[in-house]
Specification:
The protein is mainly beta. The chain contains one helix and three strands; from the N terminus they run αβββ.
Length: 57
């Protein structure tokens, strides 16, 4: 996670946030303070990587 923050020169709270209770990540076993990587496939852009910072409600 620190490598991603260094690469983009940001802090965790500057990333888009996702709640720990979000149905899309409940089964992943993540906790507040974790960072997740989301891969999205697009017919025009190919594959894009997005990062989200997990926060409590």
């Amino acid at each position: 996670a620190q490598a991603v923050l260094d690469k983009y020169n940001c802090t965790p709270t500057e990333l888009p946030l996702i709640y720990v209770t979000d149905p899309a990540i409940v089964g992943l076993g993540v906790r507040p303070g974790d960072m997740i990587r989301i891969l999205r496939k697009s017919p025009t852009a190919g594959e894009s990587i997005y990062y989200r910072y997990v926060v409590d409600v």
